[in-house]
Design goal:
Layout (H helix, E strand, L loop, with lengths): L2 H4 L10 H6 L20 E2 L10 H15 L5 H5 L4 H14 L6 E3 L3 H14 L6 E5 L4 H14 L2 E5 L20 E7 L11 H10 L3 E5 L11 H4 L3 E4 L14 E4 L43 H17 L1 H22 L6 E2 L11 E5 L3 H10 L2 E2 L1 E3 L3 E5 L7 H18 L1
Parallel strand pairs: 1-11, 3-4, 3-5, 5-6, 6-7
Antiparallel strand pairs: 2-8, 7-8, 9-10, 10-13, 12-13
Helix pairs in contact: 3-10, 5-10, 6-7, 11-13, 12-13
């Protein structure tokens, strides 16, 4: 990258990254994250797909292997691990979800958690055989619902919302009714970054007598959530994006206390049974949130995300959100200056109240641009057909990274035009 590329010229009203980093109250938090060796990475703009590891995680994992696993061995289950899914779940709930204890558990993948929660919601409501979801939701959400609909003979009602503006409460008009079992929406849209009105939509779904499930994968850890206050019934989220749990880290599920006795999850396993070590002949579900556990919890895989949850707790979600808004505002301003003149289009909401922690910019050449950038250590994300996503993890991303990254996108695009 040339010196000109490293120092893009701005209009006078746009502050430099150096000015923004100097004024950033969370700048010191970046030191908590692992830094790749020189030459490996120039700009990481994909924190909404996989968060960076914390430096503390390497030491904490080594300690876990030596002490909790290596020294305590099987005794660890009796001493702590049996309760790890709910203890970690409670901490995630307290710090990031606005959830009281006893409503969140960790384990399984996002797909499996979605299946368990949606299937339970459908099965619990005889006579309600319709599931509502938007056509632009993440493929897993749609695929899981298609499979459940086939299993249960249910009907899918599709919301045809504008992908750039996202699903709004009015988009449910004419779809909600007495046969609606559950509505499944993403709180932050994976393409555009649109932030839905979770409180208002949940209230509207409840007026129709249906259950509301929110996919929190792109919002947990970047957007303050108030699941209890909003009256949310069910929620599922991953932990490898803004919770920095690492590749394949387990998902979490939130089940409102008012729904726990009513719902019966469909994948019965020994860890969700009332007496796991009773080796009983018949299955009887555990009380409370434990009934939504299925198999042996991924205890080792939970350890890294615990480090990030505590880091978020130390600064607070409000501060995280403030930094997120400033980062995305800066990315939009840079994109307006450097990319839009080259034919790119910003397709994310301009109102920060309707935007999560990533933005999407469209251009027909962005698939090739992204491939070139990855070779140079500039890492945005691409989503077909033309969307380049700039994902900004508030505690680990600097304004300098954003400036360098958007300038590199401009340069790669210019080379192809």
């Amino acid at each position: 990258m040339t010196s000109t590329q490293q120092q893009p010229q701005h209009q006078t009203q746009l502050p430099t990254s150096a000015e923004l980093d100097a004024a950033d109250p969370l700048a010191a938090q970046r030191d908590a994250f692992y830094t790749p060796d020189a030459g490996q990475l120039t700009s990481y703009l994909d924190g909404n797909s996989l968060g960076r590891p914390l430096k503390a995680t390497a030491a904490n994992l080594a300690s876990f292997v030596h002490d909790a696993w290596g020294s305590r061995l099987i005794r660890g289950w009796d001493e702590q691990w049996m309760d790890e899914p709910t203890l970690v779940g409670d901490r995630i709930g307290e710090v990031t979800l606005g959830a009281a204890p006893g409503q969140t558990t960790v384990g399984d993948s996002t797909s499996v958690m979605l299946y368990k929660m949606i299937r339970a919601a459908v099965d619990a409501q005889p006579g309600r055989d319709e599931i509502i979801i938007d056509r632009d939701n993440f493929p897993t959400d749609r695929f899981i619902i298609e499979g459940i609909a086939k299993e249960r003979g249910a009907t899918i009602k599709w919301i045809a919302a504008n992908p750039a503006s996202g699903v709004r409460a009015a988009d449910l008009d004419g779809l909600l009714g007495e046969r609606t079992a559950v509505v499944v929406l993403s709180h932050v849209a994976y393409r555009s970054g649109y932030l839905a009105d979770a409180k208002g939509i949940t209230a509207k779904v409840h007026q129709a007598g249906a259950l509301m499930l929110w996919d929190l994968c792109h919002s947990v850890g970047s957007v303050p959530l108030e699941l209890d206050a909003w009256g949310v019934d069910l929620a599922v989220g991953c932990t490898y994006k803004y919770l920095n749990g690492g590749p394949g880290s387990p998902a979490f599920a939130y089940v409102n206390a008012s729904q726990q006795d009513r719902l019966q999850q469909p994948i019965w396993g020994w860890m969700g049974a009332d007496n796991p070590f009773g080796m009983t002949e018949a299955y009887r579900p555990a009380q409370g949130i434990r009934r939504f556990i299925t198999g042996t919890p991924p205890v080792l895989a939970m350890q890294p995300l615990k480090d990030m949850v505590e880091l978020i707790a130390s600064v607070g979600m409000d501060a995280v959100r403030e930094k997120s808004i400033k980062l995305t505002e800066y990315a939009i301003a840079l994109s307006e200056e450097l990319l839009v003149p080259l034919g790119a289009e910003i397709v994310s909401p301009r109102d920060p109240a309707e935007r999560g922690s990533h933005i999407t910019v469209d251009h027909p050449l962005f698939a090739e641009v992204t491939a070139r950038l990855w070779e140079k250590g500039v890492i945005p994300d691409f989503r077909p057909p033309h969307g380049l996503r700039i994902g900004l993890s508030p505690l680990s991303t600097s304004y300098a990274e954003v400036e360098l990254g958007v300038a590199a996108i401009r340069d790669a695009l210019t080379e192809l035009l």
